[in-house]
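Journal club prep — side note

Before the paper discussion, L.F. wants everyone to see what a predicted structure for a comparable chain looks like in token form. Sequence:
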Amino acid sequence: MRLIKESGKKPSEIYNHAEVDRQIFSRIKQNRDYQPSKDTVISFAFALKLDLPTTKKLLETAGYALSTAVRRDVIISCFIEHKRFNLMELNETLFKYGKSVLLKRK
């Protein structure tokens, strides 16, 4: 929540850009014990245009990590390192390499 506040954007702008459902966002906001999925955390990192160290810290806080041994994580890391924060482009690249795409809002 601190990162969203620091972004200067409305929370709805961030969760919509992250393609995260409002109900999921409410759970994250209201329930400190709620653990969002790794993909949800990554989607928020993209929406907030976080650098790689900040993204790794956010993932760590949620109990996850980006691994250099997992091709999908390497692709995600490369997108972040090169400031390519387009989720559609990321999903197309993941699909091209036969990796699962980030979860899409239903």
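L.F.'s comment for the group: Residues 49 and 85 are 6 Å apart (CA to CA). Keep this in mind when we get to the figures.
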